[in-house]
């Protein structure tokens, strides 16, 4: 910049000296000086005007040819234009590669802007959501009108809402035979990506599995009832030889266990296939805890010290039978996996996050490696010990589905050898104040 100023000043001095010398030779040096400087000023203004017109026209084409300081500025703009053009070409090439890559994906990708309006989508998303090229700029909820998705995307697009949410599953627009999962990920200010996956095959397989389990479990009920009835008759009548007493007792125990397994499978199938929302029963937490504690004491047979601590009675709105099943499963597990004489505590407390029912034992504990899989069907930390206790391996899976239907969740803390604490966490909207303690 300094070199340009010195160069332009040098030109000005040369012009001034030249016109002055010419003026002395003609006898009118001051007039020659004024004319020379006026011409020089006009020349500068003309170059400035040309450059200004070029800028006003959006810098189309190369910068105007000029000399002096405006020539240097034009050269700088030309170099910037070339650099900008190369960077633009690189960005276009990168954008084409990204678009080609996303076009090859089987998952649908939809880019949203301006609070949920369609900005761009790949062919897979267009095919699954039936989007047309002229749909750009319209809200996505115009094409996916399911109320669950409308609520889901509105929650995700809120300015300060960055909480993690599970993908939502719903039928494809205009084709109920296809099942899609949609996951909304927000970025930037008002922008988001929607990942669309076709899970029809997985959904159908899962439905077949549920139907199979439900049907088989239902069909097993009748023969198990018949077997149990005959075994009970043989044991009560004394008709069987003495050497058959032990086999009959073992057969009866296994029949009871099999019946319990079938009942749990039927309950789990019902929980999976019923509506996500729970019932409208008003369940007193204090009464439920006392009932579950009594049942746990009967199961324990006096081998454990079972205490109940209910800081404040509350009413949970939901399904009374399902809530009893969830509470009882945790209490019974504590009895089954705690050593004789060990204390077991059933506690209820409330805070700003809602209500929390915790069952604390001093049993064998669980390694942190196993905790994420505890709610899987038939998953056992210690298979041999679980079978000895008579468990079916479905208790925590039932608890998980009961909690899903009540907008609640399960948390587990455990230390091997020192016991475990299982906590059911209920949201505030599910609770109302009960009777005072």
From TrEMBL:
Its EC number is 2.7.13.3. It catalyses: ATP + protein L-histidine = ADP + protein N-phospho-L-histidine. CDD domains: HisKA, PAS. It is an enzyme of class 2 (transferase). Residues 215-430 form the Histidine kinase domain. Keywords: ATP-binding, Cell membrane, Kinase, Membrane, Nucleotide-binding, Phosphate transport, Phosphoprotein, Transferase, Transmembrane, Transmembrane helix, Transport, Two-component regulatory system. Gene3D superfamilies: 1.10.287.130, Histidine kinase-like ATPase, C-terminal domain, PAS domain. The chain crosses the membrane at residues 12-43. Its main location: membrane. It holds the Pfam family HATPase_c. It comes from the Bacteria. One of its GO terms (molecular function) is kinase activity. The keyword Cell membrane applies. The keyword DNA damage does not apply. It is found in: Cell membrane. Member of the two-component regulatory system PhoR/PhoB involved in the phosphate regulon genes expression. PhoR may function as a membrane-associated protein kinase that phosphorylates PhoB in response to environmental signals. This is Phosphate regulon sensor protein PhoR. It comes from Microbulbifer bruguierae. The lineage of its organism: Bacteria, Pseudomonadati, Pseudomonadota, Gammaproteobacteria, Cellvibrionales.
